[in-house]
Design a protein that fits this description.
- The protein starts with 5 loop residues before the first strand and ends with a helix.
- It is globular.
- 34% of the residues lie in helices and 18% in strands.
- Strands 3-2-1-4-5-6 form a six-stranded parallel beta sheet, sandwiched between helices.
- Helix 1 packs parallel to helix 6.
- It has one domain: HAD superfamily/HAD-like (Rossmann fold, 3-Layer(aba) Sandwich).
- By secondary structure, the protein is an alpha/beta fold.
- The protein has six helices and six strands.
Length: 197
């Protein structure tokens, strides 16, 4: 019997889901954008998987521990679940080649724009590879989606997005398929895109 495969949206964390305050080192400093809950609920309503992929080099740099990061992600999952906006998976890269913490100071396959985090999600979830989307606020997010073969790659203007567009956009070799204000706008576009034959 053939397994059902589902569309998936890979969502960057800092600047896309929550306010980007530099290296967020505690759950007290983690604030989710208010529009995120509606965006996630809509994705769930249309049976689209919601998967977070995030670089967290602050661990390698010694700014916070993996334990602190997991506490932040627990808060994220609790807040979204309480709003009926569950997240299916959270994948993070704790590595950086310039890290001060030896265990994490390495050249890995999971740091965006490499596709290791998406590859793990593809192993864990029944994802339709022809219906994958990437949403983020940085060029690295767009490149990650392109490298992974996502159908559409969407840049949001929250977080670093607006600055990226004003300062760097013209120099990018690869461009996003769409530039929108927020994650909610990206989700509305994705739902429309999936419904078009």
């Amino acid at each position: 019997m053939k397994e059902n495969r589902y569309p998936a949206v890979f969502i960057d964390r800092d600047g896309t889901l929550n306010e980007d305050r530099g290296y967020i080192n505690s759950k007290e400093n983690f604030e989710i954008y208010p529009f995120v809950f509606q965006a996630l609920r809509l994705l769930a309503q249309f049976n689209i998987l919601r998967i977070i992929i995030t670089n967290q080099a602050g661990i390698a740099r010694g700014y916070f521990t993996e334990k602190a990061l997991l506490e932040i992600h627990t808060k994220l999952e609790q807040k979204t679940a309480a709003a009926g906006a569950n997240i299916d998976g959270i994948y993070y890269c704790p590595h950086h080649t310039d890290g001060k913490v030896a265990d994490y100071a390495l050249d890995c396959s999971c740091r965006k724009p490499k596709t290791g985090l998406i590859d793990r999600a593809l192993t864990d979830f029944p994802i339709d590879k022809k219906k994958m989307y990437m949403v983020g606020d940085k060029y690295t997010d767009i490149l990650t989606g392109i490298n992974a073969g996502c159908k559409k790659n969407i840049l949001v203007k929250t977080g670093y997005g607006k600055g990226e567009i004003e300062l760097n956009y013209s120099r990018w070799n690869m461009k996003p398929d769409m530039v929108v204000e927020t994650l909610l706008d990206a989700v509305l576009f994705i739902i429309k895109d999936l419904r078009e034959k």
